[in-house]
Amino acid sequence: METMTVERVIDAPIDDVFAWLTTTTNYTRSPLVLRCRLTRRGEGAPYGVGAVRSHLWAIGWLSERITRYEAPYVTEYVVDRSVPPSRHELGRMTFSEVDGGTLVNWTTRAEMSAPLVGAFLTRHLVRPMITGSFRSILNAADKALARPGSRPATTSEQRLDA
């Protein structure tokens, strides 16, 4: 199982960043995301606890269920089904107000389900694809929410192996 984390400061208020990144249809502004839809509304908010999101990304298809929603600070999800098949323990986005905007920390813990080679494929193929997809979505959010005259955002990636 691999833990993958991407961070980025987006030069926009926390409420705006949270709203943009929890609205799955916005993800199609990334060239790596082909189609997204909300298939079931959540409790208290469209993308609240219990919401189900369907994503078709360049790396595959995912059905995600929201398990935690505390606007504007955190949302968590789990992938219930995917193609290619995977095991997924956690998806989490946290949002913090910082100088220059909002720090987004996007973490997922997953592994490709493939006997004998799953861990290898996850580390060398899936990991770069997932973190690249996360970065692409965060770039799209930054572009969509950019304030006139803002500075370029910063990104970092951390590797935390199980």
Protein described:
- With 162 residues, this protein is an alpha+beta fold.
- It is 23% helix and 47% strand.
- It contains two helices and eight strands; from the N terminus they run βαββββββαβ.
- It has helices at 14-22, 118-145; strands at residues 2-10, 33-40, 52-57, 60-70, 74-83, 86-98, 101-112, 155-161.
- An eight-stranded antiparallel beta sheet has the order 2-3-4-5-6-7-1-8, with helices on one face.
- A hairpin with a 2-residue loop joins β6 and β7 (101-112).
- It is globular and about 50 Å long.
How would you sum up this structure in a few lines?
The chain is α+β, with helices and mostly antiparallel strands and 162 residues long. It is built from two helices and eight strands; from the N terminus they run E-H-E-E-E-E-E-E-H-E. The protein has helices at residues 14-22, 118-145; strands spanning 2-10, 33-40, 52-57, 60-70, 74-83, 86-98, 101-112, 155-161.
Strand order of the largest sheet: 2-3-4-5-6-7-1-8
Count of β-strands: 8
Question: Mean pLDDT, as a whole number?
Answer: 87
**Uncertain ranges:** 153-162
Give the biggest beta sheet.
8 strands, antiparallel
Which value, in Å, is the CA radius of gyration?
A: 15 Å
The tally of helices reads: 2
User: By helix and strand content, what is the structural category?
Assistant: alpha+beta
Element order, helices and strands? EHEEEEEEHE
What is the share of helical residues? 10-25%
Shape descriptor: globular
N→C terminal distance: 6 Å
Percent strand equals over 45%
How are the secondary structure elements laid out?
Blueprint: E1 2-10, H1 14-22, E2 33-40, E3 52-57, E4 60-70, E5 74-83, E6 86-98, E7 101-112, H2 118-145, E8 155-161
Antiparallel strand pairs: 1-7, 1-8, 2-3, 3-4, 4-5, 5-6, 6-7
Helix pairs in contact: 1-2
